[in-house]
Design brief:
This protein has helices spanning 58-64, 69-77, 82-100, 107-116, 123-133, 213-226, 241-244, 246-254, 271-284, 293-311, 322-333; strands spanning 6-11, 18-23, 173-183, 186-195, 200-207, 234-237, 258-261. It has 334 residues and is α/β, with parallel strands linked by helices. Strand 4 (186-195) and strand 5 form a beta hairpin.
Length: 334
């Protein structure tokens, strides 16, 4: 008779928990020192055999564990339920969306993307999947650098915008601001111009200097190439010396642009642009210090032109991208 006195490790496949079962000689009356495991704790090898150091048959192992071998075969050949299939599909899609956004999306936006794909899933369900997989969106933090040089004697316009951030059509209201980007080679200055109609960045510039020509003038020239300027368009900014410069004010006059400026010390008058820079710095990493200016330029170009303007969905646009929002407007007008 085969001596079965040994330690057999039975591995629970689903959570990698190890059970060690002591089986004395069959001639003794002392059998199981552990409670019988569930059927799902048996490793599914070839039908008729359960892998252990002695290649014992499944039937014998099931007898030891006090369960029917037919029940084991039923579990082994059972097809996954529709719920399990749906969970697997949603789980894979959640992971795909998360990684394609470079970890920038949390459960609300991932849920909206799933819905746009025709996949029905609640935000709580998505949040549970993300927690199970250890997926977390980029953690936002506080970062504030004052880029406004308002201590100048130049003439500034009035606050015409007055926090009316809604626009009925393209090129009705533009807003702009400047922010600092840290690099190991020094500061890089990013100037951006946004159309409030669809929140698209229509013009931007990156420079190592803070002159009006390097910052706001360069961004303005890009903006008017990308989007036509209508008569009496409203251009709003802070009170920075670049926006108050004679060179920039002349450019606005040539296009019959009405200039608007925030009140002194009141960042909420330009809240939409402040929010854009918050998004940029949170989704590229707060306190990021780029190794070089060229690397910073490449990263910021990718964020603005590839991600923000083309791929990112925006809650203010009904969780659509800029292009999807534009198409929906054209469809409504047709």
């Amino acid at each position: 008779m085969i001596d079965l006195q040994c330690f057999i490790s039975c591995y629970q496949v689903r959570n990698n928990t190890t059970y060690q079962i002591f089986m004395p000689s069959v001639s003794t009356h002392n059998y199981h020192q552990l409670k019988p495991p569930k059927i799902s704790q048996l490793i599914p090898f070839q039908p008729g055999q359960f892998f252990d150091p002695f290649h014992l048959f499944v039937e014998k192992m099931c007898r030891v564990f006090k369960m029917s071998h037919s029940g084991y075969y039923t579990w082994l050949t059972r097809r996954p339920s529709q719920l399990a299939i749906n969970n697997e599909l949603i789980s894979k899609k959640v992971e795909e969306i998360y990684h394609s956004s470079k970890g920038r999306y949390g459960s609300p936006k991932i849920t909206k993307k799933l819905v746009s794909m025709g996949i029905d899933a609640s935000r709580l369900r998505v949040a549970r999947i993300m927690k199970k997989k250890g997926l977390r969106s980029v953690i936002t933090g506080k970062f504030k650098v004052c880029t406004t040089e308002s201590n100048h004697g130049l003439e500034v316009a009035n606050n015409v915008l007055e926090r009316e951030f809604d626009a009925k059509g393209p090129s009705e209201k533009w807003v702009s601001d400047i922010t600092y980007i840290r690099t190991q080679e020094g500061w890089l200055y990013l100037t951006a111009i946004m159309d409030l109609f669809d929140r698209r960045i229509v013009g931007w510039s990156m420079s190592t200097g803070m002159t009006a020509r390097e910052t706001v003038v360069a961004a303005w020239k890009m903006a008017i190439r990308n989007r036509s300027v209508v008569r009496n368009i409203l251009f709003h900014s802070d009170r920075g010396v670049q926006y108050a410069s004679q060179e920039f004010r002349e450019l606005l006059k040539d296009k019959l642009v009405q200039q608007s400026v925030s009140r002194k010390g009141n960042c909420w008058d330009n809240a939409v642009m402040e929010n854009f820079f918050k998004i940029l710095k949170s989704e590229t990493g707060y306190n990021t210090v780029y190794s070089s200016i060229e690397i910073a330029k490449r990263e910021l170009f990718e964020f603005i032109e590839i991600w923000y303007n083309r791929q990112r969905i925006h809650s203010i646009l009904g969780f659509l991208t800029h292009e999807e929002f534009g198409k929906s407007i054209l469809k409504q007008a047709a």
